């Protein structure tokens, strides 16, 4: 009478471990990139009130505010992933709103990386272009990845 084999052989177990290792090597960096993109997206969303304040000021006065407080907005942001918000008037029709991201990003990227929105004022509205700033473009939304930015109204 033959003895029936129960369970797995050592070779089978080694193959399973190798497959799990390969999958983990692919999945972990992809997950880290995904979580970093989520942090950057939250930082961009946190800029929205500042963008609205600047746009309202531009539409009512006809030029970009000298500073963000003139537009009626504070640089204090209540966001887990935003270290600071800054504003810079470029011309009477252009201004930048920039956020510095806090926390460690994927790949060991240090905190303080920036994402900017540049506002272009016209007679009836302000169009916003997104720029990666000092952040690696692969972590930004698709409309921030091209060289000229993407229009966000």
TrEMBL record:
Alphabetical list of InterPro entries matching this protein: N_methyl_site, Pilin, Pilin-like
Keyword Nucleotide-binding attached: no
Transmembrane segments: 7-31
One Gene Ontology term from the biological process aspect of the record: cell adhesion
Keywords assigned by UniProt, alphabetized: Fimbrium, Membrane, Methylation, Transmembrane, Transmembrane helix
Annotated GO CC locations: pilus
Signal sequence extent: none
Family statement: Belongs to the N-Me-Phe pilin family.
Protein name: Prepilin-type N-terminal cleavage/methylation domain-containing protein
Organism, scientific name: Candidatus Muproteobacteria bacterium RBG_16_64_11
